[in-house]
Sequence to fold (410 residues):
Amino acid sequence: MPAVLGADLEVPVKGGKLVGYANLDYAASAPCLEPVSAAVTAALPAYSSVHRGAGYASQLTTARYEQARHTVRAFVGARPDDAVIFTRNTTDATNLLAGCLPADTTVVVFDTEHHASLLPWARSVRLAPPPFPGEAVRIADEALAGIDGPKLLVVTAASNVTGELWPIAALAHIAHRHGARILVDAAQLVPHRRLNLTALDLDYVAFSGHKLYAPFGAGVLVGRRDWLSDGEPYLKGGGAVRSVGAADAADQGTDWHDDPEPRHEAGTPNVLGAIAIAAACDALSATGWTAVEREEERLITRLRAGLAAIDGVRELSLWGPDHPRVGIVSFVVDGYAAREVAEALSGEYGIGVRDGKFCAHPFVRHLLGTADGGCEDGTASAVRASIGLGTTEEHVDRLVEALRDLTTRR
Ligand SMILES: Cc1ncc(COP(=O)(O)O)c(C=O)c1O
Fold:
């Protein structure tokens, strides 16, 4: 397994002692992989402008940037003519696509989505959380059948709240039967599972580098070129235009690129971010998905079994304990607000987890059965532990023991 930076990080706990940090917050932002850091360090001495310099360093940096695009294309199994656009993150990618939808497109989206996939759309139909996966397909089918004009189905591949895997192949099939397209939010899938856009027949996928062990500020939107070629350039400026005419010309003669990559990547791109993502893709592919999945499955099963054995800890799940999931588990602890649990885990045990509603307010409210409550309302929140490369059995066991301790105090 490739190593992560910070595996030996020590953090202070109550009483001033230092302990090894148990990072169980990968779903928010994963640590940097060593090969990613090495690739960025190696690119830095020749760091120079991209697409705008004849100098050797510019040529080299441009080649590295474009190579990163090829690597990402292969990593997600994209079709040869799909666009691969570097963005800031998943949120940026979904917003970019939102700006390129044909006029009057209706977006069908589940209430279980992360806000990045729930909110960018001008016109959307929101579907209630389905009680089982087949029902997700059925209600999407029904909703799409009732819509005229262009339509897009938006769905996450793996939930950032429960880790549960969604039936994206079946949803893609349904979408296409109704002449719709599908965007898959793969932010929580790609660090854990192989994705093959072509085999799954997906139209668009989006993900973030910082969740894929590449925390250098880049993300990706991959997918069909036509909407992206016709859409309004996401950023207007240098690089997105072939030429700009004189001020007295009727339309000022701006000739925008049709190719989605230059059209939507105006300004100096985040080269190091792109190189970092490509290095993470290479490292994961070289490790092999079977090994990555097997180790993660072992640890998440251990963690969930540990949680299930503690009275007063309840795991959140939409589709039940046996539904396949990635290395993410959210839970509530009787008698504690989520923030209190997260603070105690950090302050007393050196464990990092996330608490709150994980930018998925409607979904977390649904799972908790609460009517409302803002982000600051700890009773309407949950705790999330998430794992990945670099997670150890000791981290998992420390969390379980800490929660056992906490529950016996009240
Ligand atoms: C499923 C999912 N989609 C989208 C996002 C947004 O990612 P970013 O903050 O990198 O834009 C997240 C981040 O938590 C996520 O978990």
